[in-house]
Amino acid sequence: MFEEFYIQVCSVLAGSLPSSITNYTAYRIRDRVVTRTLQAIYQQANNRETKTQPLIQHTSSASEPLSMEWPIIDEALEKEMSNQLHTSISIYGNGGVFEDFEIEFKNYHDANCSYTLLHNSGTNALHALYFAAGLSPGDEVIFPVYTFHATCSPAMQFGIKPIFCDANKNGTVSPSAIANAITTKTKAVVVTHMWGIPCDMDAICSILQQWPDILLFEDCSHAHGAK
Prior knowledge:
The chain is α/β, with parallel strands linked by helices and 227 residues long. The chain has helices at 2-16, 23-45, 75-84, 96-109, 122-132, 153-156, 175-181, 201-208; strands at residues 140-144, 161-165, 186-192, 215-219. Strands 2-1-3-4 form a four-stranded parallel sheet, with helices on one face. Strand 1 (140-144), helix 6 (153-156) and strand 2 form a beta-alpha-beta unit. Helix 1 (2-16) packs across helix 2 and helix 7 runs parallel beside helix 8. The longest helix has 23 residues, at 23-45. The protein starts with a helix and ends in an 8-residue tail after the last strand.
């Protein structure tokens, strides 16, 4: 399914983008195409009769209004939500559904770590991460220029100086751009695995081996389970 989706996205981009278009604009158009594709996938999941239809329809306009229903509310979800009203919601601990999710999420990743911690949003999780890292005013933190704004904004509440790095053609942050952005004031490097495409972590880790005091954080909100 993913290979078919990726091929069709590339086909749409190749057929609709003029050669003079900037990388940033191309990424924004790809965002729109991917969102439409995800919507089509969910529609097909609920309607098997359309599974032979193209996942996305070709369009040459990037300015069309974009709408997407989220979350997908169906009978199964309504039943689960109703059942949850009669069970623990873990207000005073990590029992109940919180504990169930944390354990299942950890097992899914086969994570060799001591803890998993559920947050109410990815933004909140990143804020907690930056707080735990002890970021302070004047620290330089390197971010990818192509990411969701909440990758960066929680860190700025601690007075850090954001340093933005350019992206590769696939949208992930460029390792060479990270290397060029590092200074003696760099406290951390943050990478985002955009659209489920892992960054070149071997190259990034190799660079940071030369700077053992620099922290490396991964925003995996797009890429749980990606390889």
